[in-house]
Amino acid sequence: MIAYNLERIKTELPSGVKLVAVSKFHPLEAILEAYNEGQRAFGENRPQEFARKAVQLPQDIEWHFIGHLQTNKLKLVLPYASLVESVDTLHLLEAINAWGEKNEKVTDILLEVHIGAEETKQGFTPSEVKAVLQMAGEFPYVRFCGLMGMASHTDDEEAIRGDFAVIKGLFDDCKAAYPSLAGFAQLSIGMSDDWRIALDYGCTEVRIGTAIFGNRSY
Questions:
Q1: Binning pLDDT at 50, 70 and 90, where does residue 218 land?
Q2: C-alpha–C-alpha distance, residues 199 and 205, integer Å
Q3: Can you give the pLDDT at residue 217?
Q4: What distance in Å separates the CA atoms of residue 46 and residue 68, rounded to the nearest whole number?
Q5: Average of per-residue pLDDT across 85-89
Q6: With contact defined as beta carbons under 8 Å apart, do 107 and 139 qualify?
Q7: Nearest to residue 38, comparing CAs of 65, 54, 61, 13?
C-alpha cells in the first residue's frame, strides 16, 4: 500500500516539487518500504525518535525536522538534519547558530509562519519573519532557505486558500526584499489533506504522512 500511495502522489506532483514523506510515529519497516521505492526525504517531529531513526536507517536519507524543537534537544537533531523546517522563535534561531559555531556546522532552516487563528500553533508572524531576515547576517551558522507554514485546520477550502495565499505572498515579498539571501528558495506548504491546493500557490515542497503511510502506528 505504501508503494501504491507513493506512486499515485508522485504522478500528481509537478517536477520541482519535493515530496517529504512524514514518517513520524511509523516503524522502521514502513520507512524502508518507502525508501525501497525510491523515496529519500523523510520528516520527523520528535527529537528522540528522529535521532534513533537517523542512525538506524540508510545514511543517504534526507531528514527533515518538522516539529517544535526545544533548545535542549538540538544535539539530537542538528547532527542529522538536512533541513530544520520549524524554526519558530528567535531564541531557537540563536541557539541553532550557537550550536553551529561550536560544532562548525551550518544548518539549513525554514522559518515557520503563523497565520492561522489557532492559538496553539507556533511560528513567526509575517512582520516578525521580515524582522528576522533583516538580521540574517547575525547568524553565520544558519542558512535561511525559505518558509514553512500550515493552513488552518478546516474543511473550508476558501479559508485554506486564503492562508496559503498569505504565506505565498510573504515568501515572494521576502525574496524580493532580501536578494542577498541566495538560498531563500523553498516554500514548504501542503499536507495530506490540502497538498493539491498548495500546488496552486507555488509550493516547492509538500509534507505528506497519512496519505502515504496510513494512520499512525504508535
A1: very low
A2: 9
A3: 52
A4: 8
A5: 97
A6: no
A7: 61
Q: Count the Cβ atoms, other than its own, within 10 Å of residue 216.
A: 10
Q: What is the CA radius of gyration of the chain?
A: 17
Which 8-state DSSP code applies to residue 104? T
CA distances (Å), origin 139, targets 10, 27, 71, 200: 36, 36, 16, 33
Alpha-carbon distances, residue 25 vs 37, 47, 60, 131, 150 (angstroms): 20, 12, 21, 35, 20
pTM over 0.85: yes
Which residues are CB-contacts of 15 (< 8 A; sequence separation ≥ 6)?
none
CATH superfamily, region 2-213:
Alanine racemase (3.20.20.10)
Where do the domains of the chain lie? Answer: 2-213
Neighbours of 31 (CB within 10 A): 22
Q: Which percentage of the chain shows pLDDT scores above 70? A: 96
Angle, alpha carbons 151-44-7 (nearest 5°): 75
Task: Report the interhelical angle of 28-36 vs 47-56 (nearest 10°).
Answer: 50
Of 50-64, 73-87, 111-125, 138-152, the one with minimum mean pLDDT is 111-125
Nearest CA-CA partner of 82 in 128, 17, 10, 18: 18
Q: Which residues pair with 187 in a beta bridge?
A: 147
pLDDT, tens digit (0-9, with 9 covering 90-100), for 145-167: 999 999 988 999 999 999 999 99
